[in-house]
Amino acid sequence: MAAARLGELLQELYQKLYDAFGPQGWWPGETPFEVILGAILTQNTNWKNVALALTDLKAEGLLDPQVLRAMPDAELAQRLRPAGYFNIKTQRVKNFLDFFYRQFHDSLEEMAQEDLGTMRAALLTVKGIGPETADSILLYALNQPTFVVDAYTYRVLSRHNLAPEAPSYEELQALFMDHLPADVPRYQEFHALLVKVGKDFCRPRPRCPGCPLHEWPISG
Ligand code: SF4
Fold first, then answer.
1. How far does residue 5's CA lie from ligand 1's centre (Å)?
2. pTM score > 0.70 for this model?
């Protein structure tokens, strides 16, 4: 498909979802640090469980990199219990906190000064942070123009003949980044809208009637 046509179709897709669902208000979190923790904790669990853990940490004034780094692993694990896989997530949070101090002295301002490619590569060296989590941190906590893709993205795009077969994470991501302007609020909203349509309609067994993309014409 010609690049210009693909760009148009992606814009159309965005508009249809936005018109149907409106702004999604992603990512929930009062501070960029909270957004980063949320991005790590939401792996393999739903947001409601993550929110419980974050709310408790916040209520006790513990949402602070130094405080969390100094907290014994066993205590942090208990506090992360609502988010599921709490022992693994404790290690992932600690890995990130070590990295954050070592490279950026706990400063998000310092972190945000790195260029996108360098920052992304650095985040991917942290054990437990994969491409989706790294891009979520970059896009939603640091407002960097990178697109987040996931299983919902692939499902929606492939069912509308817009994705190649079995693309890698980077190939699927490039589909957006090569064909849309690097617009942070638009990237933030677009990913959230794809998750919304994926959860509400484009399930393993799709619920096409009633979906805003029902009969959306795609000419491959
Ligand atoms: S549910 Fe159907 S119409 Fe909606 S995105 Fe999935 S395949 Fe498209």
1. 20
2. yes
